[in-house]
Write a structure and sequence with these properties.
- There is one protein chain.
- The protein has two domains: 5-311, 3-Layer(aba) Sandwich (Rossmann fold); 318-481, START domain (Alpha-D-Glucose-1,6-Bisphosphate, Chain A, domain 4, 2-Layer Sandwich).
- It is built from 15 helices and 19 strands.
- It has helices at residues 14-24, 84-102, 121-135, 154-165, 184-193, 215-226, 240-250, 255-265, 275-279, 287-298, 340-348, 360-372, 445-454, 456-481, 490-498; strands at residues 5-9, 30-34, 49-52, 68-73, 106-112, 140-145, 148-149, 168-171, 178-179, 182-183, 203-207, 213-214, 231-234, 328-336, 393-394, 397-403, 407-412, 418-429, 432-443.
- It has a seven-stranded parallel sheet, sandwiched between helices. It has a six-stranded antiparallel sheet with strand order 14-19-18-17-16-15. The chain has a two-stranded parallel ribbon with strand order 7-10.
- Helix 2 packs parallel to helix 3, helix 4 (154-165) crosses helix 6 (215-226) and helix 11 packs across helix 14.
- It is globular, with a radius of gyration of 25 Å.
- It starts with a strand and ends with a helix.
């Protein structure tokens, strides 16, 4: 048994976020490597270290890897755009080299199932990363998995949204491709058990549940458990690009991620080598149990982690601005005669099912246009209906800063000629509170300034209306939370009258 320090990369993502609490419950010290460790504050145990590092910057990895025995590599940059293969390659090479120099004893990695020469770029990249890690000389344990089923997972959210929203589905050929789904709980069990697994060097294990099924079968099983009647009409000529746009319109899977995902679905992803069942104690559950458990968590209206929480899901990093043009700031405020907690309540619920309080149709149109441009659209929703956290996705925004009852700052992740933020602040004021709403835009060159000023009338209309509706919602919140006067009973009123 090894008792050394464990490093987790990708702790802000779906699998890493599920694995982290299991590791923290053990006896080993845990450290998380993140580009923005602030996103993990408040989400990790007090004993867990947070280290800043960027896999694409080799010089930033030496200190986080110091004194590490086992490192989990749970990073994939599929959301980074067309160059994701090169970025994946560079990140893996940087990490492998730094791990070897630091004396790391083992790397544990989750890749993708698939065999043959004609793998999709997505699956090819997953397996290439595994080879890079193994070639480093650091013993690497690679798990190759197919579809991961769990509340908040990319595949489950796609299946859930399609079945819930479409009574009749026009389905392309990929819907009937064979896969071997694995429940997220079983994947985490494999990863935890791997800490004490002695493979005698590097090893690749193919893992999957007991059922070999298609996406179509998964959708039919979901519909059965939800007691929904659904019809599927196969249309084989739909290309991955058209299918991805279709998915982006009706599911949280936006076009860029969807295109890469669907391109990978053309390959069967099944277990050809079942040695994992001999070497590990995990006995994976079937699709009925996996979907049932995912539904149980989804019915709570939020999942422990979501695929879109990963920073890589937000797409390419913002390009450096060329410095032409000053920062544009649009700020508005309104006073409301309610306590700060009531004034802030509508703000913390913004987006997702609640919407944006004003001109929701315009917000949806903007999301549709963003989707067509290869952006994230608005289908990501939000993780929790009441309490946002730093790093959460919120439609086509991401929470950059959050202070309960005081401040919410969102960073835009839609396609823009520049960078944008939307911030809400609530401060106490005599007899109530002041709500300040600020839109900030860093334009990129002339195109950025033309974009902002060309849409200024719409921005002014939307922001003014949003602030007005937030104030109204805050007043309603205060009325609903106010204690109601206790009315005396009829008998007591009669006694009082006689007296």
């Amino acid at each position: 048994m090894n008792d050394g320090r464990v490093l987790v990369t990708g702790a802000t993502g779906y699998v890493g976020g599920r694995l982290l609490p299991e590791l923290e419950a053990g006896a080993r010290p845990v450290r998380c490597l993140a580009r923005d460790p602030e996103r993990l504050e408040g989400r990790v145990a007090p004993t867990t270290e947070l280290a800043r590092g960027d896999l694409l910057e080799a010089d930033s990895l030496a200190e986080p890897l110091r004194d590490v025995h086992t490192a989990y590599y749970l990073v994939h940059l599929m959301g980074a755009g067309d160059e994701f293969e090169e970025l994946d390659r560079r990140a893996a090479a940087n990490f492998a080299q730094a791990a070897r120099v630091a004396g790391v004893r083992r790397i544990i990695y989750v890749g993708g199932l698939g065999s043959g020469e004609a793998l999709s770029p997505h699956l090819r990249s997953r397996q290439e990363v595994g080879r890079i890690l193994r070639d480093s000389g650091v013993p690497t344990l690679e798990f190759r998995a197919s579809i991961v089923i769990g509340s908040g997972s990319l595949s489950f959210e796609m299946i859930r949204a399609l079945v819930e929203r479409l009574p009749v589905m026009i389905t392309p050929r990929w819907v009937e491709q064979t896969a071997q789904p694995l429940a997220i709980e079983d994947l985490v069990d494999y990863l935890v058990e791997a800490l004490d697994h002695d493979a005698g060097g590097s090893a690749v294990y193919e893992i999957g549940g007991p059922d070999r099924v298609s996406y179509g079968a998964l959708m039919r099983e979901y519909a059965r458990q939800r007691r929904l009647r659904r019809w599927m009409i196969p249309v084989p000529m739909l290309t991955p690009r058209l299918s991805s746009l279709w998915l982006g319109l009706v599911t949280p899977v936006y076009a860029r991620i969807g295109r890469q995902l669907l391109d990978g679905v053309r390959n069967p992803t099944v277990v050809d080598d079942d040695r994992a069942l001999e070497r590990f104690a995990v006995r994976p559950r079937g699709i009925r149990a996996a979907i049932s458990r995912a539904l149980e968590h989804e019915d709570r209206r939020f999942a422990a982690t979501r695929w879109s929480d990963a920073l890589s899901s937000s797409g390419p990093r913002p390009e450096p601005l060329d410095g032409t043009g000053p920062r544009i700031v649009d700020t508005r405020s309104t006073d409301v005669a309610v306590p700060v907690e009531d004034a802030f309540a509508p703000i913390r619920r913004i987006g997702g099912r609640t919407g944006w309080y004003y001109a929701d149709t315009l917000w949806r149109v903007r999301g549709f246009l963003d989707l067509l441009a290869g952006g994230v659209g608005t289908r990501r929703g939000r993780r929790h209906p009441e309490h946002p956290a730093v790093g959460d996705t919120l439609d086509f925004w991401r929470v950059e800063r959050y202070e309960a009852d005081r401040l919410l700052r969102l960073r835009a992740e839609m396609r823009l000629p520049g960078r944008a933020w939307l911030q809400f602040e609530v401060t106490p004021r005599d007899g109530g509170s002041r709500i300040r709403q600020t839109a900030i835009f860093d334009p990129k060159g002339l195109a950025g300034r033309a974009y902002w000023y060309g849409l200024w009338p719409i921005h002014a209309l939307v922001f003014r209306g949003m602030l007005r509706r937030i104030r109204r919602a805050a007043e309603e919140e205060a009325r609903e939370s106010a204690p109601r006067p206790v009315r005396p009973s009829a008998a007591r009123r009669a006694r009082d009258q006689r007296a």
